[in-house]
Amino acid sequence: MSARAYALSDGNSFYCSCERVFDARLARVPVIVLSNNDGCAIARTAEAKALGIGMGAPWFKIRALCKAQGVRVYSSNYALYGDMSARVNAMYRDFSPRIEVYSIDESFLDISDVRERDRATLARDMRETVRAWTGIPTCVGIGPTKTLAKLANHVAKKNPDLGGVCDLTDPVAYDHWMARIPPEDIWGVGPASARKLGAFGCESAADVRDLDTRLVRKAMTVVGERLVQELRGVACLDLEEVAATRKGCAVTRSFSDRVEDLTTMKQAVAAHATRLGEKLRREGLGTDHVTVFFHTSEHDRAQPQRSVSTVVILPEASNDSLVLVKAALHGVQKTWRGGFRYSKAGVVTTDLLPLHASQRAMPGLGQIDREQGAALMAALDACNRRFGRGAVVPAAAGFASSRGWSTKFEMRSPRYTTRLEEIPVVAA
């Protein structure tokens, strides 16, 4: 097996756990967190799962159940969840100098320098430290490859008797669990891959590991071959300590109410284009085109349906929100047709590139004044950092208070850690 060792630490029901940190009354009661516009359940505590609330369950279908069973329901509070994730990862860096933040609630750590007999002890110490300093419960999986670490994390979650830690660098544990984990529980194995592995007669992760790599490569490409090697303990995936350069960016939102007029649609798309510019500037990237789309909902079966998108080309790459807004509004104007109840709109771009290295347009052919625009955008971003996102926006995007179409967060908890006016107060 590989001399390397990876740990994957994962926050348990992370969004719900963040809510519990600041409200002791939520301990041991069922809690769920809903998606944007309070559409469906995207996080559930063990108590909520025990009531039969499934991942993605629509809110309108489980509303009565939640009321009858005393389930505490929250709208998504991404400001809180993102900040708590940063705090948890700060703890991880005390245990390893090499970390890959894989998602908001998962991180890989390189613990290759830790002696084999000490790895599980380190993982338990890390769990206790994170719980004590942030309040977030975690499970840790350890393996000689990232795939096995992910598998070990799955085992630790599903088997409470392990105390939240599973170490698959231990040969005994490795042999035991590989024979008991079904192929569909392996990281990266989706329904299509599971069917192919089933056709090969695979009933466990051990069966997948023992497949002929040539056969797997032919049926599942190099990705499948790499999966088999990782299950054998041959590390094919290293940590991505520096996030890969973004190739595309999208800002899309479902409307809280259906949009039927051009003015409202323009405001929504302008707001999305403004946010797109903020994201691109944060990473020093630019784009020379934007795709604008909007469509009706397939659930409005009694209403006429329409889905439309258009690409608007810029004379040169830019991340100036005013430039992007102008382009996006042109796309709306070009494709708008009334008489429909639109449910969602967005602005998308691909093939991003570093703005400083992008080709300039010829003078007189729409060249953008980047220097002046950059100064204005820097001032806009500074104001929004100081006074909160949306404090200063292009007029076309409108202020949040006037956006009847914007996302609903009717059951959102306070943003305890990022808004001074929402900080918890202890009564005297």
From TrEMBL:
<feature type="domain" description="UmuC">
    <location>
        <begin position="6"/>
        <end position="190"/>
    </location>
</feature>
<dbReference type="GO" id="GO:0042276">
    <property type="term" value="P:error-prone translesion synthesis"/>
</dbReference>
<dbReference type="InterPro" id="IPR017961">
    <property type="entry name" value="DNA_pol_Y-fam_little_finger"/>
</dbReference>
<dbReference type="InterPro" id="IPR050116">
    <property type="entry name" value="DNA_polymerase-Y"/>
</dbReference>
<keyword id="KW-0742">SOS response</keyword>
<dbReference type="GO" id="GO:0003684">
    <property type="term" value="F:damaged DNA binding"/>
</dbReference>
<dbReference type="GO" id="GO:0005829">
    <property type="term" value="C:cytosol"/>
</dbReference>
<protein>
    <recommendedName>
        <fullName>DNA-directed DNA polymerase</fullName>
        <ecNumber>2.7.7.7</ecNumber>
    </recommendedName>
</protein>
<keyword id="KW-0227">DNA damage</keyword>
<dbReference type="InterPro" id="IPR043128">
    <property type="entry name" value="Rev_trsase/Diguanyl_cyclase"/>
</dbReference>
<dbReference type="GO" id="GO:0006281">
    <property type="term" value="P:DNA repair"/>
</dbReference>
<keyword id="KW-0741">SOS mutagenesis</keyword>
<dbReference type="InterPro" id="IPR025188">
    <property type="entry name" value="DUF4113"/>
</dbReference>
<dbReference type="GO" id="GO:0009432">
    <property type="term" value="P:SOS response"/>
</dbReference>
<comment type="function">
    <text>Poorly processive, error-prone DNA polymerase involved in untargeted mutagenesis. Copies undamaged DNA at stalled replication forks, which arise in vivo from mismatched or misaligned primer ends. These misaligned primers can be extended by PolIV. Exhibits no 3'-5' exonuclease (proofreading) activity. May be involved in translesional synthesis, in conjunction with the beta clamp from PolIII.</text>
</comment>
<comment type="subunit">
    <text>Monomer.</text>
</comment>
<dbReference type="Pfam" id="PF11799">
    <property type="entry name" value="IMS_C"/>
</dbReference>
<dbReference type="Pfam" id="PF00817">
    <property type="entry name" value="IMS"/>
</dbReference>
<dbReference type="GO" id="GO:0003887">
    <property type="term" value="F:DNA-directed DNA polymerase activity"/>
</dbReference>
<dbReference type="InterPro" id="IPR001126">
    <property type="entry name" value="UmuC"/>
</dbReference>
<dbReference type="Pfam" id="PF13438">
    <property type="entry name" value="DUF4113"/>
</dbReference>
<keyword id="KW-0234">DNA repair</keyword>
<comment type="similarity">
    <text>Belongs to the DNA polymerase type-Y family.</text>
</comment>
<dbReference type="InterPro" id="IPR043502">
    <property type="entry name" value="DNA/RNA_pol_sf"/>
</dbReference>
